[in-house]
Amino acid sequence: MRLSTARRDQVFDAVAHERRSIADLIDSFTPEQLATPSLCGGWDVKTVAAHLVSDFSDGFWGFLASGIRHRNIDKGIDALARRRAQASAAEIADMLRTQADFRLSQPITGPLSGLTDVLVHGADIRIPLGLAHLPDPDHVGWVLDFLTSRTQFGFFPQRRLRGIALHDVDTGRRWGTGKEIRGPGVAVMLAVCGRTVALDRLTGPGVAVLRSRLR
């Protein structure tokens, strides 16, 4: 998606804020909390945080190279996250904090993919630990702009939202046409990204359609 210079700056600031928030959480967690399974299948809380370090430490080309080595991009990203997770929690938190202002803008997807990553993975970390995940509703709206755009790549297949309309009741914003899914913006964001725990917070005829596509 093409963004104005001002909006790009706002997106980068939002990413930096969330990285710092996650760094503070990682610093505060016990070993048991760090080992808690996250909402991101196969990763514990610490590995999710390590993946967010991998985002800027390895980057797009590192992901691509690892994907080629493992003959699968998802397996390549997983391998990099697990390697980064071998660092201590304090080291992971320090990297997130010291590199919070790193301006990540991947080819094709641009800066909004970075905001999507930190907001979705922020929920992956917080929700299993019973912590509130309350990102700025405007930031969630920007993420949904991206997730419903043609430049969305790597988060889910484009066909997932075919024939589905999204309605964020927090802001009144809507995306797409078809059977409606409505609810809090953060729940809409998480559900379309495959976090089934969010489906129970949503209503509308599109929920059953999305649920069937996530099986």
Give a verbal description of the structure.
- The protein is mainly alpha-helical.
- The chain contains ten helices and three strands; from the N terminus they run ααααααααβββαα.
- It folds into two domains: 5-129; 137-213, Nonspecific Lipid-transfer Protein, Chain A, CATH 3.30.1050.
- A three-stranded mixed beta sheet has the order 2-1-3.
- A hairpin with a 5-residue loop joins strand 1 and strand 2.
- Helix 1 (5-28) packs parallel to helix 7 (111-126) and helix 3 (45-57) crosses helix 5 (73-84).
- The model has no long low-confidence stretch (mean pLDDT 95).
Helix/strand layout:
Layout: H1 5-28, H2 31-34, H3 45-57, H4 59-70, H5 73-84, H6 89-98, H7 111-126, H8 137-147, E1 164-168, E2 174-175, E3 179-183, H9 185-192, H10 206-213
Parallel strand pairs: 1-3
Antiparallel strand pairs: 1-2
Helix pairs in contact: 1-6, 1-7, 3-4, 3-5, 3-6, 3-7, 4-5, 7-8, 8-9
